[in-house]
Amino acid sequence: MDKSTKEEDLLVVPDGWKDPGISKEDNPHGVLAESSFATLFPKYREKYLKECWPLVKKTLSDHNLKAELDLVEGSMTVGTTRKTWDPYVIIKARDLIKLLARSVPYEQAVRVLEDDVFCDIIKIGSLVRNGDRFVKRRQRLIGPNGSTLKAIELLTNCYVLVQGNTVSTLGSYRGIKEVRNIVIDTMKNVHPIYNIKTLMIKRELAKDPQLKDESWERFLPKFKSKNISRRKQPTKKRTKKTYTPFPPPQPESKVDKELETGEYFLKDDEKKARKRAQKRAKEHESCEKKQKERAKAFIPPEEKPTEPKQAKSSTSEVDVDKLKKKIKQAQKGKKRANVKS
């Protein structure tokens, strides 16, 4: 058995089986001891409860229960009497006053007294810390003009009411369980349309008698969450090194390095002379680098080779006769100018 499957999911109820219930003949002597339950209600429910309380008292009196409404303390109390013969009806009456306190109308809340109707009040206030985020997700559960809530009610055959920090449900045990899963997933940022789509597919598969004893996993959609983190990613990501139980190797000391190079066995004068030689070599290298950098300023830049200009080729032939006429006209003009002067 997989860890994901619970024991209650493996329980199979035979088709057509119904709870036989209990009658007055089964318990003629009544309950052994009287018990009572009380619950508080908000101030805005006082007017409505005052109006419908006679109906509540009449309904509970049919089951031999007593009911009290305390407007000073703001509480409702139900309790058994000596004539009460159903031991479980007091639990149903307790659920009735809880639903009335959570703004469920009397017409719907009174259904919980039936044997095949159950209720559940889901607390959603503590599932989301941010107030604005909580309001958005709660509105997502209701949908535009209550369309999402209506779809959930039709698919689960349950009455669902979202009020404040709670979601009240009323219906069959299996339907209430599905509503709870949808509400919790919605508060965990899973859109209710995914669960609604899954329920619609299950509803169609249930109509096929051949698929009754088969697994429906291959038909159900698998949605992957694409929630991308809005946190700024670092430019340099550090990769974690593989864990080893052994400590890192100890770094070499100055004495170890001198032992490797053989400098440890030299005399003080030889050590000083060696250090001077190393210092001169470094100075010589740095001096050469500086000279090369200075010489870069005196290196002439590379000139681009100039392309020789091509002489215009005179393809047209010169007309000799026209040229002679122009020269004669120019000479005549000079002679006239000399005569006038």
UniProtKB/TrEMBL annotation:
<feature type="domain" description="K Homology">
    <location>
        <begin position="116"/>
        <end position="188"/>
    </location>
</feature>
<keyword id="KW-0698">rRNA processing</keyword>
<dbReference type="InterPro" id="IPR048548">
    <property type="entry name" value="KRR1-like_KH2"/>
</dbReference>
<keyword id="KW-0694">RNA-binding</keyword>
<feature type="compositionally biased region" description="Basic and acidic residues">
    <location>
        <begin position="280"/>
        <end position="310"/>
    </location>
</feature>
<dbReference type="InterPro" id="IPR048549">
    <property type="entry name" value="KRR1-like_KH2_euk"/>
</dbReference>
<dbReference type="InterPro" id="IPR024166">
    <property type="entry name" value="rRNA_assembly_KRR1"/>
</dbReference>
<dbReference type="InterPro" id="IPR036612">
    <property type="entry name" value="KH_dom_type_1_sf"/>
</dbReference>
<comment type="subunit">
    <text>Component of the ribosomal small subunit (SSU) processome.</text>
</comment>
<keyword id="KW-0687">Ribonucleoprotein</keyword>
<feature type="region of interest" description="Disordered">
    <location>
        <begin position="224"/>
        <end position="341"/>
    </location>
</feature>
<protein>
    <recommendedName>
        <fullName>KRR1 small subunit processome component</fullName>
    </recommendedName>
</protein>
<dbReference type="Pfam" id="PF21800">
    <property type="entry name" value="KH_KRR1_2nd"/>
</dbReference>
<feature type="compositionally biased region" description="Basic residues">
    <location>
        <begin position="224"/>
        <end position="241"/>
    </location>
</feature>
<comment type="similarity">
    <text>Belongs to the KRR1 family.</text>
</comment>
<dbReference type="Pfam" id="PF17903">
    <property type="entry name" value="KH_KRR1_1st"/>
</dbReference>
<keyword id="KW-0539">Nucleus</keyword>
<dbReference type="InterPro" id="IPR041174">
    <property type="entry name" value="KRR1-like_KH1"/>
</dbReference>
<feature type="compositionally biased region" description="Basic residues">
    <location>
        <begin position="323"/>
        <end position="341"/>
    </location>
</feature>
<dbReference type="InterPro" id="IPR048550">
    <property type="entry name" value="KRR1-like_KH1_euk"/>
</dbReference>
<feature type="compositionally biased region" description="Basic and acidic residues">
    <location>
        <begin position="253"/>
        <end position="272"/>
    </location>
</feature>
<comment type="function">
    <text>Required for 40S ribosome biogenesis. Involved in nucleolar processing of pre-18S ribosomal RNA and ribosome assembly.</text>
</comment>
<keyword id="KW-0690">Ribosome biogenesis</keyword>
<dbReference type="InterPro" id="IPR004087">
    <property type="entry name" value="KH_dom"/>
</dbReference>
